[in-house]
Specification:
Elements: E1 3-11, E2 18-23, E3 26-27, H1 33-52, H2 65-68, E4 72-80, E5 85-86, E6 92-93, H3 96-116, H4 118-133
Parallel strand pairs: 2-4
Antiparallel strand pairs: 1-4, 2-3, 5-6
Helix pairs in contact: 1-3, 3-4
Length: about 130
Amino acid sequence: MAGTVAVALRWCDSREEQIRTFANSRPTPEGGTHAEGFRDGVAAAVNAFARQRGLLTAADPDLGAHRIGEGLTAVVSVSLDHPEYGGATRARLDNAPARACVGRAVREHLGTWLEARPEQAGTIIGRILQGARA
């Protein structure tokens, strides 16, 4: 992907997911490939950490992005040299490489954050697991 990505995220006590996405400083209310990549990366990082810490066993299925997103508030912004939008309103980003790039970046950086803060990570993942089992 020719461009940059910036992500800010936080889990709150709410069950609602709030993700705002932007491409080249334009809101993309319908999301798109950068939002899909973000969800992929968050799910990969959380599942990897949970398995490494024994919170999920090999027999347990991965936590889905919809479960991990409960209580998640995030802003995902990409700046692309050549953005491709779906439709005339530019409400959805359709750059295929953006999904993989954003996913890798989020997986790597969130994974590092989770490893550096195991107590906070355990609390977040524990709440996600509790919601998944309910």
